[in-house]
Amino acid sequence: MNKRPLKELLVAMHQGKFEFPELDTGDITSLYETKKYNDREVHVPNKKLRTFHSFIKLILLDHLDTNEDVVFSYRKGVNAVDAVSKHSRSKYFFQTDIKNFFNSIDEDMVKETILKNIEQCPISDIQDHIEKIVKTLTVNNSVPVGFSTSPTLSNACLFTFDNTLQEYCKNNSLVFSRYSDDIIISSMEKSSTFEAEKYISQKLSEITKNKLSINEAKSKHTQTGNKIKLLGMVILPNGKVSIDIKFKQDTEIKLHYYLTNKETFKKIVGSDFDGAIEKISGHLNYYNTVDPSYLDKLRKKYGTTTVDMFLHKSDKL
């Protein structure tokens, strides 16, 4: 690999037309704003920081290791449907999520992850810039929700954990997939999923030095004969993956009242109108991934213009 200095790569990529002096200080506090959506802080970078993040993602983050056999989030060509479909022939299921996922990944974890991948990094002077690079990727010592770099970083930071759990599952006839902070384990034997729960809790804390832990309040065991709901989808008795009917009903009620009674619509979605639009848009994009034919059904029922305005979060809403 022909490695080159970081600033030389930045100049080459933007033909000398983009400068980022913050790389010398790591101070990006003036380059983003913080918003709240559903009691969750989202940090929104300005154009300058977005441009730098695009550069650093291409030149550094995309070179970080990710276990592509088990991770289905934030990767081109795969999605939540693939994460769930792996489990369609199993009988027993354990699902959990990682508590406060992005915000629990701190600067030390980010730095350690980058340095582990230093051989495949095309930046020749990465050691000289590592501290400041990490500062441009974090807010208040954690990976922030809202930065385009955070999803890729989160996958890379869990590479060792994913590998360890994959090997355990392989040795114990278990199926494993991860989608962002959601972990799914399934098996043909009931006892093995309970044993896996203990193993996951132990290894996640151990490998991340007690920075990450599973959310026990959201941990759940299910089995065929009951409704198998994973990542907002259901596995039908024939093994087909479909959208949960509750999601469909919620979306259709909101679309109905948006068209017929705006006041009722506002009462249903509450005071956070922008957050509600964001949520409906997210659901529609999700349906488009899981079952595009259902999105077509919504267009026929509520109008292409209305559905697409929500889908793309139009200013006309």
From TrEMBL:
Pfam families: RVT_1. One of its GO terms (biological process) is defense response to virus. Keywords: Antiviral defense, Magnesium, Metal-binding, Nucleotidyltransferase, RNA-directed DNA polymerase, Transferase. GO terms for molecular function: metal ion binding; RNA binding; RNA-directed DNA polymerase activity. Belongs to the bacterial reverse transcriptase family. Gene3D superfamilies: 3.30.70.270. This is RNA-directed DNA polymerase. It is an enzyme of class 2 (transferase). It catalyses: DNA(n) + a 2'-deoxyribonucleoside 5'-triphosphate = DNA(n+1) + diphosphate. It comes from Pseudomonas moraviensis. Residues 1-235 form the Reverse transcriptase domain. PROSITE patterns: RT_POL. Its EC number is 2.7.7.49.
